[in-house]
Amino acid sequence: MPRMPVEDLAQRAAELAAKLHHHAQRYYVHDAPEIPDAEYDRLYAELQALEAAHPELLTSDSPTQRVIGGVLAGFTPVRHALPMLSIRTETDTTPAGAQAFDERVRRELELDAAAPPVEYSAELKFDGLAMNLRYEAGRLVQAATRGDGETGEDVTQNIRTIREIPLRLAGAAPAVLEVRGEVYLRRDAFERLNERQRERGEKTFVNPRNAAAGAVRQLDPAIAAQRPLSFFAYGLGEVQGWVQPETHSATLDALAAFGVPVCPDRAVLQGAAGLVAFHAAMGARRDALAFDIDGVVYKVNAMALQRRLGFVTREPRWAVAHKYPAQEQLTRLNAIDIQVGRTGKLTPVAKLEPVFVGGTTVSNATLHNVFELRRKGVRVGDTVIVRRAGDVIPEVVGKVPGERPAHVPNFRMPTACPVCGSRVLRERGEVNHRCSGGLFCAAQRKQALLHFAGRRAMDIEGLGDKLVDQLVDAGLIGTLPELYRLGSPEGLRKLSALDRMADKSAANLVAGLEKSKHSTLARFLYALGIRHVGEATAKDLARHFGRIDRVMDATLEQLLEVKDVGPVVAHSIRTCFEQPHNREVVAGLRAAGVTWPEHDGAAASSAPQPLTGKTLVLTGTLQLLSRDEAKALIEAAGGKVAGSVSKKTHWVVAGEDAGSKLEKARELGVAVLDEAGLRALLAGEPGEPVEPTPDC
Ligand code: IVH
Questions:
Q1: 125 in active site
Q2: Where along the chain do the CATH 3.40.50.10190 domains lie?
Q3: Which residue has its alpha carbon closest to ligand 1 atom 23?
Q4: Of 19, 125, 299, 631, which residue is the catalytic one?
Q5: Could you read off the pLDDT of 484-524 as tens digits, one per residue?
Q6: I want to staple 138 with a disulfide (CB 3.0 to 4.6 A). Which of 42, 169, 390, 481 is the partner?
Q7: 88-323 classified as CATH 3.30.470.30
Q8: CATH code for the part of the protein at 328-399
Q9: How far apart are CA 322 and CA 101, in angstroms?
Q10: Relative to the CA of 86, which ligand 1 atom is closest?
Q11: Cα separation of 446 and 431, whole Å?
Q12: How far is the CA of 293 from the centre of ligand 1 (A)?
């Protein structure tokens, strides 16, 4: 501890006491903590150490001297027949924690080194809230929270909504049996609950324990019932008319026989070595459990020995909680990035000052969506609470109230996808932003390719998820048209270079690709993976428009004329084809030989074709489009591509290393465009020449 003048130490102690008091109220009374438990424990330990070193600083109302808890107005207080105690916590998460407990027990029992190992019952330390269930003549008559250990709250109505808790005990029931255990929320139930809250744009819960505590202390049992709580028994309270078994483990077995849930992950073990092994084994399984645990609990198994060991103040000498690394920690939010998922969802991701949480070092955590981010009020520079539990992605669950630099701007979602530049959309009533790039977006490429190749789409035999992974990971397929180039000698060479790609599978793929080229407009439209365009809509569109160019050029009004197409679907189709790169994909696929029968459609479209009556000449190498793709695009837009420049040429599109055609264009005063200019033309914008054309 740093050397400080006594006045400063007194001030620090008072400060710590005030903080601990505040946070205990938030935790116990309001079920809404502002800091992680680990942080609370640190403050608590600091105050304890201060008081130990300077007993004159110890006050009777110090948080270290009190069992905190409280009764919320609205619930009837219940005085426990036997106080609900807590257990000593071993925060040293290494094997030394278990060894220290065993040594203490042996010392207290005055066992010498030669005495056989002590038998223990080892259990999980469930991270929920303690509950006393009182059964009289086998019927559940009362459920009460722990409160301050002496007096809790009557929450019977809410506890009755927990299906796992029997309202009647099985078998021959004692006159009075108080079952003590933990009410908790499974992780999947917690995730679902938060997912629902997020969808509704409501506040999410920090962790399963808070959600469970909030549910138990809900004044409205109907709301409590919406959170599917669970329960595990771990001990007894008052008992009348029943002879308790001789060991703790046998007591748990008896409770299970009464029909009370008892966690099967428990063991009877010998000595420190057994405890150490249990701590390690459960630690390894921690992430895979269906619920949160914050440690394991060791209890001397023989009741006779428990009685001999007794209690120190309010803690039994025969039990200890041996912790695991905390699942929530504080750290600094350094930046907010955007991640684009396989389905195109944009997720704000917190870039964190690396922090050890839930057993690993975490430097990225999800912020879910922009609304939740705002609700939590987090900004770059804030100290935030990070949670990592189970195999769910670490998340920022909140921030610690406090100062922040004045100039930090509010986070904004980008309007263009950070991966592919496509427009970012958010539909009405949706909380998530999405990239509209689909097939064009590298982040969505694998998923999009699989969809494209699917049986109900282009039905490309031989293209499954493993091969898609390989092709994309090896960089062989950037855009969809490239898929069809795999059949070329160059493509085949690349394929054969793929890891483990047998000649036979390459041949299968090439045959599959060839076969898929003869398709239908409905399949093709569905294959493009336009959001909200499922098979049925694709069929309706194909029937209605008959030709791909009419679908691509249809206005919102025209799209709305299609059976079952509403504003959301129409908008999604418009957004897709408004973007030149998506039109290029279509043109590229056609150029690669993908065909389907077309007709004039149920409703002949009058969609304007931006290049009708125009002649263009291509020269040089374009960066993004192959010559064929550019040609197909121009033709799809109603234009013609000529081989040489004349006075009748409307535009010359010049790529790199353009030669005599460019010179000729200059000579004749024909407008020259670059690739971007061509895209603008295709999108219906007036052509902008890239260089001034001489007057003539
Ligand atoms: S035994 C006298 N066993 O941890 C011993 N407690 O301070 C009473 N807890 O809030 C507790 N899992 O609700 C025991 N397997 C377990 C437990 C457990 C969780 C909680 C308990 C209490 C705290 C102990």
A1: yes
A2: 608-682
A3: 86
A4: 125
A5: 998 888 888 888 887 666 677 788 899 999 999 999 999 99
A6: 169
A7: yes
A8: 2.40.50.140
A9: 9
A10: 7
A11: 24
A12: 11
